[in-house]
Structures are given as C-alpha cells and as structure tokens.
Amino acid sequence: xxxxxxxxxxIGSRLLDILLDEAPARGEELRVIVRDPGKLPGPxxxxxxxxxxxxxDPEVVDRAxxxxxxxxxxVPPDPRAPSLDAAYLGFTRAAAKAFTxxxxxxxxxxxxxGRGTPVAxxxxxxxxxxxxxxxxxxxxxxxxGLANPSFMDNLLRQVASIRDDGVxxxxxxxxxxxxxxxxxxxxxAAAGLLLDRSWAGAGEVPVLGPEDLSxxxxxxxxxxxxxxxxxxxxxxxxxxxxxxxxHVFGDAIIEGxxxxxxxxxxxxxxGVRRTPGTASPTTFRTWCEEVLKPAxxxxx
Length: 300
Prior knowledge:
alpha/beta; Rossmann fold; three-stranded mixed sheet; 12 strands
C-alpha cells in the first residue's frame, strides 16, 4: 500500500497519474489523503482508497497509514501559518508519530536543496523544510527527501504578465545561473522511489534539471518558444515583500519567502553537483513548449 498526500497539487496529481499506470502491475494498492474528494478525477476515486481530511490531523493519518508500506509526504502551503515551524514541523508531527505507530517502511518527501551551504540556516522556507526532513528521519523510517531547486512551474503564476506585458520577475541577479526542475520530473523521481523500495536509511535525492540557466537565459528561451519578446525584470526584496503584503500571506510566511529568495541569490542552490543521477530530463525549453505555451494560449 502506497499513501499519497496532496494528490490534487501540481506534483501529487502527476505522481498519482504515474502510479495509477504502474502500481497495479506491481501489485501495489494506492490510498490518497485529500480534504475534498470531489477534486479528484473520477478514475482516481474508482481505483484508489480515499481518506478524507487533512494530513496534519492525527486521526486522519492514523487511518491512512494503517497497513501502509510507503508514504509520499508533501506539506501543503499554509499562507496564514503563525510561524514556519508551525507550517512545516507542526504540520508533520502527527504523521511522524503515525509512521512509527504503523511501522511504515519508507517515506519520500518533497524538500529542498541547500543542506550544508553557508546560507542554509537562514533560508526561510528551505530551512524549515530541512528541519522537517530531520524530524521524519528521527522516527527511524527509511527516508528520501527530494532536494529540489526552484520549480519551473512557478512561472505559471506570471502567465498574465508574460502574455500581456512580455515581462517576468524574480529577485535574483539576471546573470546568476542556477538549476530549475519541472514538477513532472519531481513526481517521476518520487514514483521511482515509491515503487522500488530497495533503499534503506536516510538521504537526499537531488532533482536538478539538465542544465543551469540564468533569468536572462530563461527570457531568451521563452521569447523563442512563445515567438514574442519576453524580458526579465529584477525585483528588489523590499518590492517583493510589498507585493506579498496585503494578500493572503501572514507576516511569518512573507519573511520566510524573503529569506529564501535572499539565500538563493547567495548560492543556496549551488551546493550539489549535477551528475547523471541528479540531472532530471526536462529542459526549460521543453517545459516552455509543453506547459507554459499552452497556458499562455489558454488565457489569451
């Protein structure tokens, strides 16, 4: 039995598609934890056991992890969390106890790059995510944290600006090169670990994409794929903070984002070397063709 949390999110939904195709041939049963089962596609509800509720609820994870061999763990965003500790560690504590109570063998979690870098201790959401990894590891379960850089898919939040103004923004230097990963590749890495549980102990699995790119490089690729000029505008951290203020985000979450973006510009994602084992396959150009371009057209 494999349990999938956050099955309607960008990563979880792709993971569920992969597992629905591959798990039956391996004799694996699937279970999902979801707040609103109505958001699941009909085939998922028909083929997977559904536990309704939030996966920070002790009663929910107790029911969901009973008989589970492996769990995919993803902490959903909580824009109003009072602290990053509450958003990550607080959310995970009930599950950590349930891993032990139900003798869950393997857990795969969505985490972040940065462990061991000089800036990892003050990297906001990344620092909290790494502390979450440590909490899970302390239970003794076999654990792999998917160590991710920034997601290519985050650009989908700027589809309107890219389409209407030919502009996307970030806070990093325009010529700083860094890895980026596609959500589909992260899901594929999780699926491989969940289906082949021959691994033991604790460790990280970096998902780095096939290349490092700067914001200027990304602007060039987007311009070529979309066949319209797209340019990058660097946003100051103060302007970034101001843009988040007044929306749904609480102060702790906003400062966590600011600290994370500052750390990224200071080398947070630079600590892992790309190898055949850490290089996920989807190029930024392919992602633009398959994901960004249809999104821009659909909202035209």
